[in-house]
UniProtKB/TrEMBL annotation:
SMART domains: KISc. This is Kinesin-like protein KIN-8B. It holds the Pfam family Kinesin. Residues 164-183 are annotated as: Disordered. One of its GO terms (molecular function) is microtubule binding.
Amino acid sequence: QQGVVLTDPREDPDDILRANRSREKTFVFDMVFDHTATQEEVYVSTTKSLIEGVISGYNATIFAYGPTGTGKTSTMLGTDCERGIFIRALGDIFKALEARAEDMDYTVSMSYLEIYNEVIHDLLNPSSGFLDLREDSRGSIQMAGITEVSTTNAQEVTQLLVKGKKQRAREPTAANGASSRSHAVLQVTVTQNSRRKDTREEVRIGKLFMVDLVGSERAAQQTQNRGRRMKEGAHINRPLLALGNCINALSEKGGSRAHFVNFRDSKLTRLLKDSLGGNSRTVMIAHISPARSCFEESQMTLVYAYRAKTIKTQV
């Protein structure tokens, strides 16, 4: 349940020169799921434990990473039959808050945006145009003009997410007939005030980021992109490269000099600065395909996720 063994399908077992070289690579993670895993199992093992922290005033982030067609959107949004992490997490947040309703007044607000070709769009209000990232006096990143919707139950959230999903940039490729071409970020903010008069005024604010990253496959090999779609793929991969560089810098060990982490290379990394190296509990869910033709993408994804595992955040 914690190991992935990757076997190179291209090597000839009869090759004498490489007879003693191992064709297998083993990667160890906190949890590994096979093709029989249910949405409930994935949610309980990866995200459920973060919900109590969000309600206590901590921040949490869940990434879905991997090549096109491996099930990132399915894991995060789910299907009509099986709810994904988005809906399950929000459902648990509302249940936990209702249990504290006698002692606390609370509000839950959410925003849903996409980053497409380094441009931010509001998925809940598409007519708002392009949005800007701005930094306030305390150094936290804010999105100017983003729509924040206050919700009271998971049913409302489901309707908003379905509405937002329809606005998301999608294009067919050879790897996936309905490939998402943008990074989708759902931000949920939980604000609580104590109802008891004898306590000092205290406001707890916890934020939950849920990020569905775009496919990380190589442009020409799996997707067979050409022309305009090829250029679009290069723009899409730029934020992933910036994210990889940040992960490399954050996970570097040893050496006397402190590694500079360039969060400003991309809007995605600027937005997720606190999620990667700051005050946040972060989970990365890496998706791979067992197909022989996807060996290189699977290997790149596992190396990427394995490196992310070594990050130690400074709270």
